[in-house]
Design goal:
The protein contains eight helices and five strands, in the order βαβαβαβαααβαα. The radius of gyration is 17 Å and the shape is elongated. The chain starts with a strand and ends in an 11-residue tail after the last helix. Helix 1 links the parallel strand 1 and strand 2.
Length: about 170
């Protein structure tokens, strides 16, 4: 279970989730839409259970590597919502020239290149789809690996540009 975003009585909300873990009703808890070190530090100041994940907007153009690096010391992993840029931006991400070049090189789709990058970069990516073919394609990521140079090229696409601002 995730606390959705910073707001009223974050400590109380988080304590309720911790109580649910203690009662055996939840196995794991985390937070969502916490984008800065200060926001994470606030949660860590009252948390008895370190969040397992921080679920944030994370895609080619908003990678927030600084937060990922910071929270890794606590064993916290970034989970990406909008791994393909979200509604209205997917085509832009799929059509990015670096992504299409790599897709052609590996004989994969743009979606597979983006998901493989997320996986190799240490993110959890959960793409949404109701199309069985897309679901199968999204899982077919384990027969290739991007080189370090290719990972750096994708990292270079980061513009720190979020599409949603809470």
């Amino acid at each position: 279970m995730l606390g959705h975003q910073p707001g009223y009585d974050d400590a109380g909300v988080y304590k309720a989730m911790e109580d649910a873990v203690a009662a055996g009703k939840l196995r794991s808890i985390g937070i969502s839409n916490y984008y800065t070190k200060a926001q994470v530090d606030e949660v860590l100041s009252f948390a008895k259970i370190v969040p397992a994940v921080i679920q944030n907007e994370n895609h080619l153009y908003y990678q927030n590597i600084a937060l990922q690096d910071y929270v890794s010391q606590y064993g916290i992993v970034i989970e990406s919502w909008y791994p393909f840029g979200g509604r209205g931006h997917t085509a832009e991400h799929f059509g990015n020239s670096v992504i299409t070049e790599l897709a052609e090189k590996y004989g994969k789709s743009s979606a597979q290149i983006i998901l493989r990058w997320q996986l190799q970069a240490g993110f959890i990516a959960i793409p949404g789809s109701s199309n069985p073919e897309h679901i199968a394609e999204n899982y077919d990521l384990f027969d290739f690996e991007l080189t370090e140079e290719e990972m750096q090229r994708i990292r270079g696409l980061d513009r720190q540009a979020r599409y949603e601002n809470w």
